Amino acid sequence: MQELNQIPGNDPIDEVSGHRTLGPTSTPTHPLATAPVGMPAHSVDGFVREFLHELNTNQGVALSRSSANDQYLALASTVRNYLMARWLETSRRTREAKAKTIGYLSAEYLLGRQLGNALLATDLNEIAEKGLALCGLDLVTLRNQEVEPGLGNGGLGRLAACFIDSLATMDVPCIGYGIRYEYGIFRQTFVDGRQVEETDTWLALGSPWEFPHPEASVQVDFGGHTERYVDADGEERTRWVPSWNVLGVPYNYMVPGYLNGRVNTLRLWSAQATKAFDLQIFNAGDYAQAVRAQTFAENISKVLYPEDSTPQGKELRLQQQYFFVACSLRDFIDNELEEGFDLHNLADRITYQLNDTHPVIAVPELMRLLIDVRGFSWDEAWEVTSKCFNYTCHTLLPEALEVWSTELLGRLLPRHLEIVYRINDQFLAEVDKTFPGDGLRTRRMSIISEYPERGVRMAYLATVAAGKVNGVAALHSQLLRDKVLPDFSELWPDKFTNVTNGVTPRRFVKLANPKLSDLITDAIGPGWLTNLERLKELEPYADDPEFKASFAAVKASNKQRLTALLKTRDDIDLPDGHLLDVMVKRLHEYKRQSLKLLHIVSLYEQVLSGKLPASALTPRTVVFGAKAAPGYRMAKDTIHLINKVAMKVNSAPEVEGRLKVAFPANYNVTLAEKLIPAADLSEQISLAGMEASGTGNMKFALNGALTIGTDDGANVEIRQLVGDKHFFLFGMDEPAVTELGAKGYHPGAYYESNPQLRATLDLILSGHFSDGDPHAFDSVVFNLLHQDRFMALADFQSYVDTQALVEQRYADQDAWTRSAILNVARTGYFSSDRSMRDYLQRIWHTSPML
Ligand code: 26W
User: Fold this and answer.
1) Under CATH, what is the fold of the domain 512-836?
2) Atom 10, ligand 1: residue with shortest CA distance
3) Per the record, what are the reactions this protein catalyses (predicted)?
């Protein structure tokens, strides 16, 4: 075999790695420096040369001495090099065209692994596989080396990742702005069935996907006070005199479009202490104290807050929000616009999308930049600002809506608080003009709340400033108008719109489910991956016996793949031939994992007590995946209960071979990509009116799972599209929930009147799952019985009845497969490409560059 340890006379690639995309561009001194360097050769040989070059020069090792991590890093750099020229070209083309850019402002991006996606976007998968094989290496093994960047909690962060993928694929200029958390979402382990959090050290072995640009750092100020002064023109102005500052260092990530040559940028900011801290050290005499101050500054981007939906109102969180937003606004103005650009026209060049309220402090920040730094009048600044922002709301839970106390805001960002007060004054004057003398209304709509303490309602501020406000599914947008912001939708009916969420089919169909993808391509030809509505062409195949057999074989093979993974990853044995029933999402009461649990315990109890022969159960494995916010007691207790039930059920001879519960720890994007394609049944069982949209629901349907779900979020639209016959609807709808809430929900009545529900809860209360301790799960059970805001017991009977229908349908495998195929064929609508088209047309008013 050829000696491949050393590179045979490689071409230098310094042009590429030395190129800076940020900071003031110096005049090129070499004719070639204006044009991006070419791509490495698209051949197995070229790939191997590049790979070995990276291994030798970047990792500094010979192939024979390299570790798996070396090999992974070299492979990643190799693939990256193929994208480099396109990245530079994209940036050049966008500037030259002076095209309008989408500035996606999001505190979270749940990206998932990068390598597979980069190989897909460059069409290098096969070449890489062959080239690595020549080196005696296995692509899959190397892909598995990658630690996913878990820079998000759940749906909101994953949605951001899908959206930037779609924009790149649709050739739309977009910069994603966010935070480079040193520690992402915690790694979950179980100890005695209880969740234990470990830090996520995703950067420990190096991240080959990021490009730091310390030379383009931005200073961000905090604290201090404001002063008035009169400027040279005799105008009264305000000056912010901050008391401390940090540096934001940008890290660029490639966001490659699918086979289209576009590579957009995700720019994540990392906090670093400024020189001021060094000076402090020098002057203070107390070296240790001064170094501590440095750590304080760098804390800002240290860790992702693991709370999903309950804001803690923590100072550090507000620091994070202002930090990344201040960096991002400055970055675009200073580095992306040409010198001398008239900021009165800023809205022609950027439209900022506020991903929930987390980045809303950008509104007063832009006002401050325009007024205090650029000398705009208030009205001029507002004219620009109110054209630059749009706001997406991702929740309906009142406790998820952020309110920052004016005490904290005034201490951290005194100038911004002044600006918010003035925005509010002007806004309330407008309200008063439209509804004269309606003081109650004015108070209701005020951006400033007075109870329980004086605070800034960020959702109101966002709504006042935004051109458009949208919810994330039809039902959610309706409820947003009617229940969360009714006064605002009355004042500005045209401001409100809906954009139903979507998911990227590149990651969640093609990468996650290659076998299904091949089957689809065999049937309808290529092209569907960027035009997902074309899945409709699969409909006739739902009655084609040969196709059905192949489809079922793909599902079976995906189950085998999952079985192998769970065995090595978690030492979990998945039995063969079971209905695979999957509930994966964050653990939250409103999502009602406890309802799924009651169903399991109910089946188990019926067999145990002899009410049902085990043979009557459809063999079923229920898989849970869920992280609980570390401070969320009820969620953590629910995880404990699920694990305890799993231990008992899985070792009970009575249900052996019939019922199994699996709860692999640390559910993340990587696991989702294996779990979802294997699932038969998708659990989407939130209390109606609570789940804004859901996006997991879409991923399951697109991969041929049938949904059991309530009339909530995007379930509503999924059911409309796939048809009632192919969707298992249960439970109260939103009006019924509201009515029951008004009447008074009394869970005890369900317990009293429903013998099976009673037997189920009693079994838990007996200590059966807790080694005889009857009180181990009091918190969960008493909550269900006494104060459950999410009415699990009210939907129990409907849920178990509908599960019985699931079993009936599953018994007819042919009918099941037909429904599964129709789910795939009819859910092309849920591509995030379609969501992006909706945003482009109705919110951003711009179009792709091509
Ligand atoms: C700590 C404060 C906080 C508040 C809200 C953190 C995170 C949030 C997010 C809005 C929660 C979230 O991820 N919402 C989910 O957004 C998805 C994308 O739109 C929807 O599909 C989910 O239904 C919604 O729960």
Assistant:
1) Rossmann fold (3.40.50)
2) 394
3) [(1->4)-alpha-D-glucosyl](n) + phosphate = [(1->4)-alpha-D-glucosyl](n-1) + alpha-D-glucose 1-phosphate
838 Cα: distance to centroid of ligand 1 (angstroms): 20
How many CA atoms within 13 Å lie on the side-chain side of 321? 26
pLDDT for 34 beyond 60: no
Q: Measure Cα distances from 761 to 508, 605, 661, 731 in Å.
A: 37, 10, 18, 19
Residues 665-677 have a mean pLDDT of 98
Residue nearest to atom 8 of ligand 1 (CA): 309
- For residue range 684-729, what is the model confidence (pLDDT) as tens digits? 999 999 999 999 999 999 999 999 999 999 999 999 999 999 999 9
Q: Ligand 1 centre and the CA of 155: distance in Å?
A: 6
Flag whether pLDDT at 258 surpasses 60: yes
Q: What is the pTM of this model?
A: 0.95
Whose CA is closest to 213, among 60, 70, 327? 327
Supply the residue whose CA is at minimum distance from atom 2 of ligand 1.
311
Spacing, Cα 694 to ligand 1 middle (Å): 9
Which residue has the CA at smallest separation from atom 1 of ligand 1? 311
pLDDT of 312 strictly over 90: no
Q: Annotated catalytic sites, by residue?
A: 394, 585-586, 591, 695, 699
**Residues 520-577: tens digit of each pLDDT:** 999 999 999 999 999 999 999 999 999 999 999 999 999 999 999 999 999 999 999 9
Pocket lining for ligand 1, CB < 6 angstroms: 153-156, 159, 307-311, 356, 394-395, 400, 472, 501, 691-695, 713
Sequence ranges of the domains in the chain: 1-97+119-147, 512-836
- Residue 642's pLDDT band, with cuts at 50, 70 and 90, is very high
Cβ atoms of residues 283 and 260 within 8 Å: no
Write down the pLDDT at residue 272: 96
Query: CA-CA distance, 765 to 775, in Å (whole number)?
Result: 7
- In ligand 1, the atom with minimum distance to the C-alpha of 158 is 18
CA 304 to centroid of ligand 1, rounded, Å:
14
Q: Which of 753, 750, 735, 785 is nearest to 594 (CA)?
A: 785
Cis peptide before 452 (omega within 30 of 0): yes
Name the CA radius of gyration of the chain, rounded.
28
Residue linked to tokens 């051109």:
467
